[in-house]
Design goal:
Chain lengths: 344, 352
């Protein structure tokens, strides 16, 4: 007999409890008790257990144990998994195509086209020769130590995922800024996405999609990295000077004109700060995503851990740092250019 | 000369709070601002406002901060919705307008100048000046000429391709005025347009506004907390306090006959010699004075008359309008008029 027997007896649920009774020991502790022949009755008030699921289960066998909860969740997920896959699979298929296509494109174009192309993009967004030289040196260093292929894989994944983050994140952020209701609904989801340990949302994805499909890590990266661009778009639009918005209203702008001619241009510094954060977060996630078959420098880090290859792991880590610095400097420089054109 | 009524505000109330309609009933039964805030947690913004704004005049709405003047001007183009009352523009009830008609009104009938300029920081001065036209769907090439014309008119020739942050405050507000003028709307709303500028530039801008007004004859509604400014600009002066109108009328009339101690306090600090004009204090008569020291215009201010008399209080002047005598002015009377009057007692429309 256990501590909380009185609850079930006072509620008259003994019959219901007895229905769940079985003689087989349900846990190791129960087995030990059974063999020792002692009862589970606590000796003093000091040892009274919290009325948890397991403690209540001791009093009433029909009451679920906590492992039934996790098991139920798993079974529930497995039950809806197939129907979810039917909907989600075709919806997310373009992501696989985009990732595979970009990876194929970047890896099969010769280096003497890809590197100048990247440098041209850097110059276009930053207009700074210094930065172009820095990026050129970094890429050449990576290529020289034969990490070019891995670095390009990582970059290709980041490009696709960051682009999709902006593509979906900015409109979500705009929607949030326009309705307080939308903001109240979205903020808890964003909080959850941001604080959930990144490994945790790999788990349901593994169940949903095949590990061989590239969209698996694509979705993980996008979910993890989309948060800042949404938040900062929302914030940026909400922070637009109220007086300017009032002037736009007073001159009879439609809400469409207001959005594209006033709000988005004025929120652009904040949106770009969000894009910078999104790129940095997708870089962090692309390493973790190598656990679920994402190619790139992360694979080498993983190899370093698995096979205790210290040198490989360290150099790959350094390569990630170099990529991070490049991406950060380039996005920050383009952000500074936008800021300079509209400082007030 | 009586002009058409362009905008007519009738029994306008604005109450801020969760259930303004309920609060309105209390206010109509005579509850004051302080009591309403304390007992029902609603802020009385505007209370029973009735103003006729005449075409081609500058109507100045003056009050201290919190008096509801900025709230009032935003009712004219419905940036703020009233709790009760009517706003008519050219005889049409603006409050009945749907979104499209309201947008048309804002685009074509009314333009607005703001205290904090509210220019678009990412657009050039030229694009800012043409904002009203841009909103109506014209391209930059199409409105360039018009915008340049108005920028030149407010003295900003050569600054067209600069950005607002490269200009000083006074120049930014000139862009604001050019933007309002370029919309070619008959009504111009100016919300504390010059309050953020330093005194010398403010005076320049007031002169600019009067000069433009002479030429364009727009219907201007001007908000200010500065009495000197309102006396300089106003054809019709409305004084607001705590959301209700204390007195309205011709500025000279208000100066000579303040009907409330609030206004008396207000006008006690001003330079009466500069704002009062001969016509307000002269004795109306067609008879020629016995000893005439000379002719003065009815539009002269007292300062100029004192300067002319060299401080001699025994003189008498003949007041003329277009060459004909309309009255006489004794210097003795002039000196008396420089002392502020107490509010005419019993006339005070105190609401508390």
């Amino acid at each position: 007999m256990a501590t909380y027997d009185f609850i079930f007896s006072s509620l008259g649920l003994e019959d219901w409890c007895a229905a769940g009774q079985s003689d087989a020991p349900m846990s190791m502790a129960a087995l030990l008790q059974k063999t020792k022949g002692t009862t589970g009755e606590p000796e003093s008030l000091w040892d009274t257990p919290f009325p948890s699921m397991d403690a209540l289960n001791e009093s009433c066998a029909a009451f679920p144990q906590s492992r039934d909860l996790t098991k139920g969740l798993e079974e529930g997920f497995l039950a809806v998994k197939d129907s979810m896959s039917i909907v989600l699979d075709p919806l997310t298929q373009p992501l696989s195509w985009a990732l595979d296509g970009t990876l194929y494109g970047m890896l099969n174009t010769p280096w003497w086209i890809v590197i100048p192309l990247l440098l041209a993009v850097v110059f276009f967004v930053t207009k700074s020769w210094k930065l172009v030289a820095f990026v050129a040196a970094s890429l050449c260093l990576l290529a020289f130590i034969d990490y070019y292929r891995y670095a390009m894989e990582t970059l290709a994944i980041i490009f696709v995922c960051a682009f999709l983050c902006v593509l979906f994140g900015v409109p979500i952020g705009i929607a949030m800024s326009r309705s307080n209701m939308m903001q109240r609904l979205t903020v808890p989801v964003l909080d959850m996405l941001q604080t959930l340990p990144p490994f945790v949302y790999l788990i349901p994805l593994i169940f949903l999609f095949s590990v061989t499909e590239s969209k698996l890590y694509g979705i993980a990266i996008i979910l993890y990295a989309i948060v800042p661009v949404i938040r900062l778009t929302n914030l940026g639009i909400r922070l637009v000077d109220k007086d300017v918005i009032e002037a736009a209203d007073a001159f009879g702008m439609t809400s469409h004109q207001k959005l594209f001619k006033v709000q988005i241009p004025l929120a652009l510094p904040n949106i770009m700060a969000g894009v910078n954060q999104t790129i940095m977060m997708s870089l962090a996630m692309v390493v973790i995503a190598s656990l679920v078959s994402a190619p790139g420098l992360g694979v080498l880090v993983l190899q370093g851990i698995r096979n205790l290859e210290l040198g490989v792991g360290l150099v790959a880590g350094l390569g990630i740092v170099i990529l991070a610095v490049i991406l950060d400097r380039v996005t920050k420089a383009s952000l500074a250019r936008i800021n300079a054109s509209q400082n007030q | 000369m009586e002009r058409n009524i362009k905008i007519s505000i009738r029994n306008l109330y604005k109450i801020f709070g969760p259930v303004p309609d309920v609060a309105l009933a209390y206010v109509r039964r005579g509850m004051g601002k302080a009591e309403l805030l304390e007992k029902h947690n609603h802020v009385l913004g505007l209370q029973d406002i009735n103003v006729d704004i005449h075409e081609g005049e500058i109507t100045v709405i003056m009050g201290l901060s919190g008096s509801g003047k900025s709230t009032l001007i935003r009712h004219l183009n419905r940036l703020i919705e009233p709790t009760a009352g009517e706003v008519e523009v050219d005889g049409e009830n603006v409050l009945a307008y749907d979104e499209d008609k309201l947008r048309k009104l804002r685009r074509e009938q009314m333009s607005m100048v703001f205290q904090k300029f509210a220019l678009l920081p990412h657009k050039t001065v030229l694009e800012n000046a043409g904002m009203a036209l841009l909103v109506r769907g014209f391209s930059v090439q199409e409105f360039e000429g018009e915008a340049k014309k108005w920028l030149a008119r407010v003295g900003l020739e050569g600054n067209e391709y600069q950005y607002p942050h490269q200009l000083s405050g006074g120049m930014q507000q000139r862009v604001g005025i050019a933007r309002a003028l370029a919309s070619n709307s008959p009504i111009m709303l100016m919300d504390e347009a010059f309050s953020a500028l330093d005194p010398l530039i403010r005076s320049d801008m007031q002169d600019l506004l009067l000069e433009l007004q002479e030429e364009l004859q727009k219907t201007v509604v001007f908000i200010t907390h500065d009495l000197d400014e309102s006396l300089k600009l106003a054809d019709h002066l409305v004084i607001l306090k705590d959301g209700h109108i204390v007195q309205q009328g011709e500025p000279q009339e208000i100066l000579m006959n303040p009907n409330d101690s609030y206004i008396t306090d207000f006008i006690s600090d001003i330079n009466r010699a500069r704002v009062l004009r001969v016509r307000s204090i002269m004795e109306k008569t067609k008879e020629a004075p016995e000893e005439c020291a000379g002719d003065i215009s009815e539009r002269d201010n007292l300062e100029s008359v004192i300067a002319r008399s060299n401080g001699d209080t025994n003189l008498t002047y003949r007041v003329v309008r277009k060459g004909n005598q309309v009255g006489i002015l004794k210097m003795e009377e002039l000196v008396k008029a420089l002392v502020p009057l107490e509010a005419a007692e019993g006339d005070a429309r105190s609401r508390y």
